[in-house]
C-alpha cells in the first residue's frame, strides 16, 4: 500500500471480506490474474484448502466473490432486491461507465437489472427528477479538482417546494451531510445572490439559502 491506496476507496479498509467470510457458511473466491484462474474456498471462516491454480485464463482479470450467509448467525438470510438495487444504482451513477448487473434467480423467472450510466451525476439528478417538471432545460454541472480531491456536483430545479440534495464521499452516502454540504449550500447562496444583485433592475434583492434551494435536486460527490 502507498498514500494513494485509499484515495477513492470507501468501506471498511479491507476488513469487509474478512467479516463476510467469518459470518458465512461458505465463501469462494475466483481470481483471474497473470493469465491464470485461481480458486480458494472457506467454510465458517476457515480455508478448506490452500489457494490453487485451476486453469488458464489468458487476458482475463478480475475477482469473483460468492458467499452464503450462515444460518447459525443470522435468523433471516433473505436479501431484499429493492435495497440492493437502490445502492448498486447509486454506485453506477457515481462511477460513470461502470456496468453493474443485479440478478435474482430465487424464483422461477429471473429478475434482472443492468445499470450503466455514462452521464454520471448529471444522469443521477435526471433519474431522481424523472417524474417532476423541470424549470431549467438541463442540469447544471460543476467539476473541479484541487489538492488531489475531485468534486462533482449536478444541480437541477423543478416546480416543487422540496429540496433534495444527496452527498457522497468516496461513493459512501452521508445522509446527514457534512462540511462539503455546508460549503456547497453557502457557495450556492452567494452565487445566486450575486447574480440577483448584479441583474436587479429596481430595489436590492436579498435571498435566503432556503429561497435558493427551493425545488432543487442536487448530487454532490467528493473523491
Structural account:
The chain is α+β, with helices and mostly antiparallel strands and 223 residues long. The chain folds into three domains: 1-77, Heat Shock Protein 90 (2-Layer Sandwich), CATH 3.30.565; 79-117, no CATH class; 120-199 and 208-222, 2-Layer Sandwich (Ribosomal Protein S5, domain 2). It has helices spanning 16-22, 81-94, 121-128, 179-199, 209-213, and strands spanning 24-33, 36-43, 46-47, 52-56, 62-69, 99-104, 111-116, 140-146, 149-157, 164-169, 172-173, 216-222. The longest helix has 21 residues, at 179-199. It is elongated, with a radius of gyration of 23 Å. The chain starts with 15 loop residues before the first helix and ends with a strand. The mean pLDDT is 91.
Mind telling me which CATH architecture of the largest domain this is?
2-Layer Sandwich
Number of separate structural domains: 3
The whole-angstrom Rg is 23 Å
The first-to-last residue Cα distance is 18 Å
Would you identify the regions where 5 or more consecutive residues have pLDDT less than 50? none
The secondary structure category is alpha+beta
CATH C-level of the largest domain: Alpha Beta
Biggest beta sheet attributes: 5 strands, antiparallel
Beta-strand percentage range: 25-35%
Q: Helix fraction?
A: 10-25%
In DSSP terms (H or I, runs of 4 or more residues), the helix count works out at: 5
Order of SSEs, N→C?
HEEEEEHEEHEEEEHHE
The name CATH uses for the topology of the largest domain is Ribosomal Protein S5, domain 2
Q: Which outline best applies? A: elongated
Q: How many strands?
A: 12
The average pLDDT score comes to 91
Amino acid at each position: 500500500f502507498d498514500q494513494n491506496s485509499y484515495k477513492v476507496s470507501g468501506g471498511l479498509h479491507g476488513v469487509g471480506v474478512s467479516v463476510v467470510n467469518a459470518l458465512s457458511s461458505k465463501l469462494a473466491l475466483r481470481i483471474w490474474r497473470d493469465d491464470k484462474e485461481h480458486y480458494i474456498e472457506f467454510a465458517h471462516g476457515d480455508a478448506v484448502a490452500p489457494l490453487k491454480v485451476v486453469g488458464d485464463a489468458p487476458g482475463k482479470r478480475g475477482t469473483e466473490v460468492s458467499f452464503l450467509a450462515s444460518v447459525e448467525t443470522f435468523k433471516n438470510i433473505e436479501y431484499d432486491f429493492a435495497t440492493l438495487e437502490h445502492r448498486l444504482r447509486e454506485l453506477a451513477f457515481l462511477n460513470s461507465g461502470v456496468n453493474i448487473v443485479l440478478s435474482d434467480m430465487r424464483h422461477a423467472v429471473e429478475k434482472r437489472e443492468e445499470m450503466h450510466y455514462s452521464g454520471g451525476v448529471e444522469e443521477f439528478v435526471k433519474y431522481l427528477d424523472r417524474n417532476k417538471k423541470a424549470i431549467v432545460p438541463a442540469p447544471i454541472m460543476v467539476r473541479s479538482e484541487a489538492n488531489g480531491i475531485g468534486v462533482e456536483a449536478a444541480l437541477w430545479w423543478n416546480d416543487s417546494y422540496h429540496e433534495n440534495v444527496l452527498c457522497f464521499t468516496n461513493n459512501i452516502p452521508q445522509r446527514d451531510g457534512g462540511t462539503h454540504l455546508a460549503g456547497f449550500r453557502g457557495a450556492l447562496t452567494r452565487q445566486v445572490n450575486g447574480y440577483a444583485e448584479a441583474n436587479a433592475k429596481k430595489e436590492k434583492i436579498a435571498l435566503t439559502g432556503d429561497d435558493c434551494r427551493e425545488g432543487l435536486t442536487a448530487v454532490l460527490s467528493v473523491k
